[in-house]
């Protein structure tokens, strides 16, 4: 098949394109997760911003970030399990 420019058009590698889209999506999701976590924990733990963190602020941030990641992991695992179950039910 010829294109508008008179050269043979190559068939795109669909699997490669899917992988690149998945990787870009995963990166965007990770960046959003980090931004949301930073905003939530900053608002909760930093009451009086200054040039350095107090030990209580550091502890609060550490705990907040750890809990945020734990909650995210629980939600992600539950979501993946639900989607897998729904896919399995649709194919059965």
From TrEMBL:
Which biological process annotations from GO are given for this protein? protein insertion into mitochondrial inner membrane; protein transport
Report the membrane topology from the UniProt record: Peripheral membrane protein
GO MF term list:
metal ion binding
Q: What is its main location?
A: mitochondrion
Entry's localization field: Mitochondrion inner membrane
Domain comment from the record reads as follows: The twin CX3C motif contains 4 conserved Cys residues that form 2 disulfide bonds in the mitochondrial intermembrane space.
Q: What does this protein do?
A: Mitochondrial intermembrane chaperone that participates in the import and insertion of some multi-pass transmembrane proteins into the mitochondrial inner membrane. Also required for the transfer of beta-barrel precursors from the TOM complex to the sorting and assembly machinery (SAM complex) of the outer membrane. Acts as a chaperone-like protein that protects the hydrophobic precursors from aggregation and guide them through the mitochondrial intermembrane space.
Subunit text: Heterohexamer.
This protein is called what? Mitochondrial import inner membrane translocase subunit
* UniProt source species: Wallemia mellicola
